[in-house]
Amino acid sequence: MEKGKKIWMDGILIDWDDARVHILTHTLHYGLGVFEGIRCYLCEDGRSVIFRLPEHTERFFKSAHIAQMEIPYTPEEINNAIVETLKANDLKEGYIRPLAYLAEGSMGLYPKNNPVRVAIAAWHWGAYLGEEGLKKGIRVKISSFVRHHVNSGMTKAKIVGNYVNSILAKREVVASGYDEAILLDTDGYVSEGSGENIFMVRDGVLKTTPLTSVLDGITRDSVIRIAKDNGIRLVEERFTRDELYSADEAFFTGTAAEITPIVEVDNRTIGTGKPGPVTNTIQEIFFDVVKGKNKDYIDWLYYID
User: Fold this and answer.
1) CB–CB of 205/250 below 8 Å?
2) What are phi and psi of 248, to 5 degrees?
3) What is the pLDDT of residue 262?
């Protein structure tokens, strides 16, 4: 991670090294906070765009609502602060992390009047799962850790503490030599990656897990629209790990992961062991969109220059 210059905290841009919180910050102890992951891309015309910024900000506020946290800013103020943070760090492209957290005050499991504070950081971040992974695909393992039950972890919110589950899964599989984890839901069906939604292709049909135990991914939604617009049959339904083993293609989607092909699961080769035609088509369209080359999805681009 490359250190930046400034971080936006509660309406003020401060030096990166001065962006600190009190040791009794409630979220630090108990994990009740919400965040977003957003990308800014440099287009071929030299202008910078934030990919689907309104949708990300909307999800940020929905996550806070689910967590019973009232963000003390409007969505427009958060959007403006994101742009301000990018410019303060001289970033033409990069990763953006808004965070809302409970500050110090009451301790224990009932934070009575702890104020909600908001911070926004931005930094340069390349391919989350590696440039080689984007091109050639990655090796994945089913984790022994299962995804949250829908009534335990509030799966539709990007709640800070929920991601302990993801960290444990990721550490487990990386220690075994894999690139990323897949988690099953509490019924034993494929849920998602540690920080990504998952798609598979079999007999020309693109399939992804429904919005039960998984986060409503914005890149996931983008891929669904791209697929439908390009005549690729798509279904949202549960599938098992052994159905995934016999898939012709598979890939992860996410703001960080973008469109990353999966070429192996649990030591079983997926398809030919290389990114397949459906994956390649969707990946090519997606990157043309975020680079400003494909004008069919211009409504997804929030220009900041």
Assistant:
1) no
2) -80, -30
3) 98
- DSSP secondary structure, 108-173, as one string: SS--SSPPEEEEEEEE----TT-HHHHHH-EEEEE-SSPPPPTTTS-TTS-BGGGGHHHHHHHHHH
pLDDT one-digit tens code per residue, 5-33: 999 999 999 999 999 999 999 999 999 99
Known catalytic residues are 158
Q: How many C-beta neighbours within 10 Å does residue 118 have?
A: 22
Q: What is the pLDDT of residue 153?
A: 84
Q: What is the pLDDT of residues 190-201, one digit of tens each?
A: 999 999 999 999
Element (H, E) at 78: helix 75-88
Compute the Cα dihedral for 267, 262, 99, 146 and give only its sign.
negative
Q: Between the CA of residue 234 and those of 114, 182, 207, 223, what are the distances in Å?
A: 45, 21, 6, 10
Q: What is the pTM of this model?
A: 0.96
H-helix segments, 196-276: 218-229, 241-245
Q: Give the 3-state secondary structure of residue 106.
A: coil
Reference 157, options 43, 32, 39, 266; nearest CA is: 32
